[in-house]
Specification:
four-stranded mixed beta sheet, 2 helices, alpha+beta, single chain
């Protein structure tokens, strides 16, 4: 049954070398394995994501993946120091202040990778 299997996020990229530099140098991930089609990365608690070459990179208007963090303010500050630029939103339902939106029992912040994919970090309150 799928409910007993690990899920791995797919993140489409158009330029694998550029994406690897972002995920490895800017965000600090180490590849578990790499090939000419993509790189697998591991995050906390055994979660993984696969950055793979795709013509669909950056076309999704919604978040591709998010990391559940214990302190979003500290995480945003650290990522900003690394050059990450956070998106600012002002829509019905939520508005970001210094890159962070609060609502529905969670604080969230969004940023784009080098391929245009929307990524997020979130802290449950």
């Amino acid at each position: 049954m799928l409910s007993h299997s690990q899920i791995i996020a797919y993140i489409p990229v158009s330029d694998l070398a550029r994406a690897r530099k972002f995920y490895e140098t800017t965000l600090g991930f180490r590849p578990l394995e790499s090939s000419e089609i993509g790189s697998m990365y591991e995050s906390a608690k055994g979660s993984k994501f696969f950055a793979y070459i795709s013509g669909g990179a950056g076309t999704n208007k919604a978040s591709t993946a998010f990391w559940d963090v214990p302190d979003i303010d500290a995480e945003v500050a650290d990522l900003k120091k690394r050059g990450v630029v956070f998106e600012e939103y002002d829509t019905p339902g939520y508005k970001t202040v210094n890159g962070i939106a609060t609502g529905g029992g969670v604080k969230s912040a969004w940023f784009k990778d080098t391929e245009g994919n929307i990524l997020a970090i979130a802290q449950r309150l």
